[in-house]
Amino acid sequence: MTTADRPIPLRVWVQTRQGHRAVDGVAVAWTARAVRVRYLDEHGRQGFAWVWANAVVRR
User: Fold this and answer.
1) How far apart are CA 15 and CA 3, in angstroms?
2) What are the residues whose beta carbons fall under 8 Å from the beta carbon of 34, sequence distance 6 or more?
3) Going residue by residue through the chain (59 aa), what tens digit of pLDDT does each one get?
4) What's the pTM value of the predicted model, to 2 decimals?
5) Gap between the Cα atoms of 24 and 28, Å rounded
6) Strand partners, 2
């Protein structure tokens, strides 16, 4: 696992109670296949999730 020195801005698909949503976030760590992201949900609450690498796009 690689940990980011500085968070990397990205657009990420995450699972929410309302279904899958594309949100802005930052990558804080990653492996060859997955990325740990920090994001804000639609209510402004911070969330963390591991997602597949193909679910993120750098901004």
Assistant:
1) 23
2) 50, 51, 52, 53
3) 999 999 999 999 998 878 888 999 999 999 999 999 999 888 888 999 999 999 999 98
4) 0.86
5) 13
6) 30
